[in-house]
Design a protein that fits this description.
Number of helices: 8
Shape: globular
Number of strands: 15
Structural class: alpha/beta
Helix content: 25-40%
Radius of gyration: 20 Å
Strand content: 25-35%
Length: 283
């Protein structure tokens, strides 16, 4: 029996990504922790409620949104991803479809102008959505949209516009799941750990140790690819575009990025191969 299982860059069998919402001051400390351990995150921002440059928050205010200058200073060229979170953070499923589309387009246009790049990812505000909302999101050119659904599993997503997560950082199973993920031996299907939350929750609960312990435990592992949401989406899409011969002995990569595959005859001569962009490989 011929096999072909996706492997992440450099042949790694596992990937990890984070997704944090709202563009708040506490992201500064979160990013320091993640950078220390080589972990990538996608930050989802509401462009219409970015703080004024002269905004002064009351001491202890929980959700301190960053100003435009601070948003750019923190996220631009950071190695992390910025994504859409709707313009004003409404309950999208309560709005007319045209208004939903405007919320997404306005946020996308504003963020693309700020960061000088194409933005194609999103997290649903409050995590809520409907079929109509999903259709509007797709029409706005969004390729993936994160929900707040926690599966407590490590499966590769199938419906990227209803993108589930492994868990929220407030989940009591966070570290047991992290331990399971780090220690698992992947033979065939690749694995993905997807964590989400709001960085101000660490300050509210006075438990920055939660993300510090998690990042220290999962960071720096040779068999884990640390990537942003869009990097993982693009890689999975590239793998799915591979063209195989009928007997699965020849494979072509029509995408613009290299792809790694565990391929061969099951139980006999299985190996991980790299297929360069435009390359055709005989196994």
């Amino acid at each position: 029996m011929n096999i072909a299982f996706m492997r992440f860059p450099e042949g790694k069998p596992k990937a990890l990504t984070l997704s944090y919402d709202d563009g708040v001051e506490q992201d500064i400390d979160l990013m320091k922790i993640l950078d220390k351990h080589g972990i990538k995150c996608t930050f989802n921002i509401n462009s219409a409620v970015i703080a004024r440059e002269d905004k002064v928050y009351a001491p202890g205010a929980p959700q301190r949104r960053l100003s435009k200058s601070r948003v750019l200073a923190l996220y631009k060229d950071s190695g992390h991803e910025v994504a859409v979170h709707s313009s004003t953070h409404p309950w999208l499923e309560t709005l007319p479809t045209a208004t939903v589309a405007k919320e997404i387009i306005d946020d996308r246009v504003a963020l693309e102008e700020m960061f000088g790049t194409v933005i194609r990812g999103m997290a649903y505000p409050m995590g809520t959505f409907s079929d109509e909302v999903v259709a509007a999101v797709k029409s706005a050119g969004i390729l993936y949209a994160r929900t707040t659904i926690s599966t407590k599993s490590f499966d590769i997503p199938r419906d990227w516009l209803r993108l589930p997560t492994t868990c929220r950082h407030k989940d009591p199973d966070l570290m047991p799941l992290a331990e399971k993920f780090v220690n698992m031996q992947v033979k065939n299907h690749p694995r993905l750990f997807y964590l989400w939350g709001h960085s101000y929750e660490f300050e509210d609960a006075d438990n920055w140790n939660v993300i510090e312990e998690f990042a220290e435990y999962v960071g720096g592992k040779e068999d884990i690819w640390y990537a942003t949401n869009i990097e993982i989406f693009e890689y999975v899409e590239a793998f799915n575009r591979l063209v195989w011969s009928a007997d699965m002995r020849i494979v072509k990569n029509p995408s613009a990025i290299p792809v790694w595959v565990k391929a061969g005859i099951h139980g006999e001569g299985e190996k991980v191969i790299k297929i360069e962009p435009g390359e055709t490989v005989r196994l």
